[in-house]
Design a protein that fits this description.
Elements: H1 2-21, E1 47-50, E2 54-57, H2 62-70, E3 75-78, H3 86-90, E4 100-106, H4 113-116, H5 118-134, E5 139-142, H6 149-160, H7 166-174, H8 181-189, H9 193-207, E6 214-219, E7 222-227
Parallel strand pairs: 2-5, 3-4, 3-5
Antiparallel strand pairs: 1-2, 4-6, 6-7
Helix pairs in contact: 5-9, 6-7, 6-8, 7-8
Length: 228
């Protein structure tokens, strides 16, 4: 009997792993053809979510950071747990006539947090939605690859703010072929009325206390970082 239970446990474990990764393994390229604004910087995995309001993508390298500045990004939300954007901007050489200030926010996500602790993701979604609601656009949100963590935040924005049906938001999430897209879809389907109400209540609480992690000021050919 114990052997049978062990065998069954292994089968269930394999099934769960297949469920987690099956959606992300089919393709490697993002379908950006539906994005109204695109970037010629391939590494940025860029897509415009809402025109003149919200952009999404991967963590910017020097080319990506330069493109964001050229296109007048005003706010950046970094979902990476460890990797920071600030050194990239500090090392940029920019046009002398550029004068720009960017609000920079850290919301530290990791995978597969939506599966292990969805209540923490709810809190992060509230933080992110408060940034979108209060900070100057365009707002660029990213994680490492711009697919999974970014996809969950964007999908939550689509559902809670824009009123997009859950399955439509999930379809957009999966178009970016993230390895954890099934986990993200499971999280989004779990956003019932009670959780949505709690998230929006927390958004309101964030609005009155929201402060950037830092400011990136780009002027006179370079960028400097000022902690808030």
């Amino acid at each position: 009997m114990k052997a049978d239970r062990g065998h069954m446990g292994r089968r269930i474990g394999v099934s769960i792993l297949f469920w987690l990764f099956s959606a992300g393994s089919a393709a490697a390229q993002v379908d950006v053809n539906t994005c109204s604004l695109q970037s010629d910087v391939v590494s940025l995995t860029f897509c415009e979510v809402t025109p003149e309001v919200l952009w999404r993508g991967a963590q910017p390298d020097s080319d990506g950071a330069a493109w964001l500045l050229k296109n007048q990004v005003r706010t950046i939300v970094n979902l990476e747990l460890v990797h920071d954007d600030l050194p990239v901007f500090e090392q940029l050489e920019i046009d002398d006539d550029l004068n720009q200030r960017i609000g920079y926010f850290r919301i530290r996500e990791w995978e597969p947090l939506p599966l292990l602790a969805p209540f923490i993701v709810d809190a992060h979604v509230a933080h992110f939605l408060a940034v979108v609601a209060t900070q100057p656009p365009p707002i660029f949100v990213h994680c490492r690859a711009g697919r999974n963590r970014t996809g969950v935040m964007v999908a939550a924005y689509r559902i809670l703010i824009e009123g997009l049906p859950v399955e439509d938001a999930i379809a957009e999430l999966k178009r970016f072929h993230g390895a954890w897209s099934n986990v993200g879809a499971h999280y989004l389907r779990g956003l019932n009325l009670q959780r949505r109400t709690a998230i929006l209540r927390e958004v309101a609480e964030w609005k009155v206390k929201l402060e950037p992690t830092a400011y990136i000021t780009c002027v006179n050919g370079g960028c400097t970082v000022t902690p808030d």
